[in-house]
Specification:
The protein is mainly α and about 80 residues long. It contains four helices and no strands. It has one domain.
Amino acid sequence: MDPKKILRQQFMETVGKQLRDGDPPETAVTLKRLQEEGYSEQQARELISACVAAEMFTVMETNAPFNRQSFVARLKKLPQLPE
């Protein structure tokens, strides 16, 4: 299987877990906001997964722990994709 496809799937699973667990609650708020802006549920989840990916790459690059504030800031900027 393509490594990029595996990573995308894992990021989408992370979004699903966040929504299921309600942690962080901002993930569900963002999903609802994006759907109200006209995005399908799938599209909204994919946008959120881009934030998960960006935050995970930051963690790997810096060896710093997951930064919830940074993640939430990325969510608030959606649909603008994280840099």
